[in-house]
Amino acid sequence: METAQKIIENISENKIHQHYISISNLNVSFGSQHILKNISLNFQKNKVNCIVGPSGGGKSTLLRSINRINNDDYNLIINGSILFNNEEILIKNKDLTKLRKEIGMVFQSPCVFPKSIKENVLFGIENHSKLSQAEKDSIVEENLKAASLWDEVSTRLNESAKSLSIGQQQRLCIARTLAVKPKILLMDEPTSSLDPISTEAIEVLMNRLKAEYTIILVTHNISQAKRIADELYFICEGELIESGSKDVLFSNPKKEQTRTYLFNGTCNC
Amino acid sequence: MSAFQNSIGRGYVVSSTYLSIAIVLVIFIVLFISSYDAFSTVGWKIFTLEWNPSKDKFGVLSMIYGTLSVTFIALLIAMPLGVLTAIFISEILPEKFRLYFKSAIELLAGIPSIIYGLIGIAFFSGWVSSLFELATGRTILTAGILLSIMVLPTIITLSEDALHNIPKKYREVSKGLGLYPFETITKTLLPIAKNDIIGAILLALGRALGETMAVMLLIGSIDRIPDPFYNFLAPGQTITSKLGREIGESAFGSLHFSALNAIGFLLLLIVITLTIITQFYFKKEDRL
User: What residue stretches are annotated with the ABC transmembrane type-1 domain (chain B) (predicted)?
Assistant: First the structure.
């Protein structure tokens, strides 16, 4: 009896862990524009969850709903349910700052503040807790290392972040997000403005980070999805066409639209 | 576009630039030449208290004091009010109301200063005299308060532009890192807009130093430094109000006329010094 109880507990715990973020019947509109239609899906823990689809299909809107960064957008209407760790995100009086500390976000184009590299890394975490100088130094080092940037900038931490290349700036943004210690990383086409070498650096980084973080990546670059995704979600014109593990979707998609998109890059939805 | 047309365009732009620099220099030089008489005759005694043209005494200290104190009061009131209003319009007010608010405030800037002066005489001086039980409401404080209203639109409009021009992504990054809306304003937006806001305040400072008509009507026009010097409830005199009152009475070419030019020259020096200090102090390194 006791073992049965334990097994059930294990199963339910597993379930929570596997469906770290669980979205059901999500509808998002801006005014009369219906962007996301009845999306239901689950994102897996410690995986690179990759949302693909043509531009304007609602990928970013989906991502931006998860940490509710679009909360202040004018005439946004959002319905449905997003569960994070079995807690509803879409309730009205949700503590958004707490939510965003747990669900960090990296944006499309790198956006560093006109401050030094060090101050940029500390920017978020400094506002959440008082830190001693030693703590600050170790946080800076730890997160720059995590973002594979430490070796390039360790000698010039006090220089302006604007002096870095665009690829380095994007990794600095990742370090800044990691410093807040989120559980989930939302990445909105983080490599779309970068050169191939920086793109590769960030892809390697994502592969490494998924051991510790759950990554939800939006990309319109199918070959990138093929390289690094674990789970694939194909969204087109606001609808989830198909989802599943990358290997299944690339080898044997169930829907014709998925096949057309993944192999020809065109969309016939 | 031919090379010839291009050179005409270039010549036009370059000559316009040189022309405006030349105008500033000519003003400076002409003012200095016409005040030279006073400087050479009166000498360092220009920095004394007594102003009496019939005795050839031209002490300007009380006017410099009046100008600086009126400006100080005006900025003390207008700076927090203006910057906070700018924050409200740019960051808190829904976008669709923004332009209405801004145009209403910009309207304030278009009101002629004599109208402000009339309103000041009609209401402000009465309020000040009854509130503090004074014989007259025409004091340094009254002029300062009125001046603060006059420079408000400059501070609000330019600070609001500075805040509003910050790309949306900075707000999103800041929110995404878990900062509260208030922290986003103080930690992210204000530091980025800082230099432009200082620029706005500088422009307001220039307007406050140079404003004549409204101040002349309200300050009481008495050449003295009140006792104690921070007693802003006493009448005073600014450089501009002195010039406005006496330039018509002085004979062209007289020592009196030259002395009035000299205080104009001093005003110009004050404005230039303050501008240089501020620009030197706040370097433009934190720009986006």
Answer: 64-278
SS3 A154: coil
- A36: domain CATH number? 3.40.50.300
Q: Is B16 a member of any domain? A: no
B191 to chain A: closest CA residue: A114
pLDDT in tens, A213-231: 999 999 988 889 999 999 9
Mean pLDDT, residues B138-155 taken together = 93
- Interface confidence (ipTM) of the complex: 0.83
What confidence category does residue A72 fall into, taking pLDDT thresholds of 50, 70 and 90? confident
* Domain membership flag for residue A218: yes
Please report residues of B whose CB lies closer than 8 A to that of A127: 177-179, 183, 187
Whether B37 maps to a domain, the answer reads no
Q: Can you read off the two tokens belonging to residue A225?
A: 């999805």
Q: Is residue A269 part of a domain?
A: no
> Does residue A235 sit within a domain?
yes
Alpha carbon of B82: minimum distance to chain A alpha carbons (Å): 25
3-state secondary structure of A71: coil
Token pair of B58 as six digits: 């031209």
Among residues A187, A202, A199, the alpha carbon closest in space to that of A147 is found at A202
Contact flag B169-A111 (C-beta cutoff 8 Å): yes
Each residue's pLDDT tens digit, B85-119 = 999 999 999 888 999 999 999 898 889 999 999 99
- A252 lies in which domain range? 2-264
Question: Per CB distance under 8 Å, which residues of A are interface residues toward B?
Answer: 67, 69, 74, 96-98, 100-101, 104-105, 107, 109, 111, 113-115, 123-124, 127-128, 160, 173, 176-177, 180
Sheet holding A214-219, edge to edge: A103-106, A184-188, A214-219, A48-52, A231-236, A239-245
Spatial neighbors of B139 by CB under 8 A, at least 6 apart, are: B125, B128, B219, B220, B232, B233, B234, B235, B236
Chain B neighbors of A111, CB-CB under 8 A: 167, 169-170, 172-173
Domain range enclosing B119: 46-286
Q: Which two tokens stand for residue A87?
A: 């807690």
Distance from C-alpha of A241 to C-alpha of A256, rounded to nearest angstrom: 10
Of B170, B172, B180, the CB nearest to A97: B180
**B contacts of A176 (beta carbons < 8 Å):** 177
